């Protein structure tokens, strides 16, 4: 019996434990922190051995295979030890994918991957049986165990891609690549880019790579590191022979001389970046033979993603917007770009080596006040202090919202778009977004 050791008792860890047990592995789950109650119950109920608050080396280093949670960096001593012993370390998607024959759509990128994955799933589910997993919802492993769909849309992070071996999506999507998580990649942008491109590493000519042709990072990388996949680029600026492009406010998608055309006038989501997300999702749908009418209707009735430019409430003619999912500068760039009124901007958190320069023109033009919400706000104060009349700092969401309420005038927008990770003050970006919404409702 092969021994499967799982590091991290969260959603992906527990899902992998259940699937591993079903497939005949001897399973052990080890979490250095505390395992949430709901996950503990599942482990106990399924008689899976686990520990929390520590990693017992003797119970880990005898593994045949280790699945590590994407949150655990490679630099950790224990992970180095495991690798030195020649034990294979994989991510949940690598482990789980071998147990399904489903068609897999894998979506990665620095921004837009959740929206694109959710939108793609929304379109496909009108006609196909399809699961949504990866970085989102129930774990991929658990879905394969409980209801093995014939198709999956997976939102995949670079951390999950770092630990793949044979994983191969039939259709891969790279939405864009901008500097993010550089603390995990020795502060080398090229390491992070290489990590994203692992999504195509096992693809063949029979598989597809859909990507943003307007992104110089992706374009340059592909020229220097060609992939085997059939390429289907999308662009807002230039005609594309095979792929998608924007022509007079219409999306034109061509695959093997088969073209579909869709107006963008009634897209449910606003902003240039969402036209790109729509192009990527529609290209996937077109490849999987979804009817044009279905694609169009789905694009028009899609509700969007929680914590992503989510309109919360209008109070005294001030619009409050929750963009807590903006955990890097580029995501906040899209948010500020789409603001059309004077903006009170709530920003800050755990900085991942951010360079705020690309935001300067928007801040000068649109932002009337900045509220820094983080444990350490020094970098923000130094960067933006001279650009706005009002800059304040706080460590409480309720206070941040009250200050915003005092500053904002009729016709303004209050935007939570932190450009940083949330772990300094919150459990995760969802917790941060919910606290924001709660505070706004309590005004």
User: Could you name the CATH topology of the largest domain?
Assistant: UDP-N-acetylmuramoyl-L-alanine:D-glutamate ligase
N→C terminal distance: 58 Å
Strand content: 15-25%
| Spatial strand sequence of the major β-sheet | 7-8-6-9-10-11-12-13-14
Describe the structure.
This protein is α/β, with parallel strands linked by helices and 443 residues long. The protein has 3 domains: 88 residues, Rossmann fold (3-Layer(aba) Sandwich); 208 residues, UDP-N-acetylmuramoyl-L-alanine:D-glutamate ligase; 132 residues, Mur ligase, C-terminal domain (Protein-Tyrosine Phosphatase, Chain A), CATH 3.90.190.20. The protein has 17 helices and 20 strands. The strands form 3 sheets. A 9-stranded mixed β-sheet has the order 7-8-6-9-10-11-12-13-14, covered by helices on one side. Strands 15-16-20-17-18-19 form a 6-stranded mixed β-sheet, with helices on both faces. It has a 5-stranded parallel β-sheet with strand order 3-2-1-4-5, with helices on both faces. Strand 18, helix 15 and strand 19 form a beta-alpha-beta unit. Helix 1 runs parallel beside helix 7, helix 6 packs across helix 11 and helix 6 crosses helix 12. The protein is globular. The chain starts with a strand and ends with a helix.
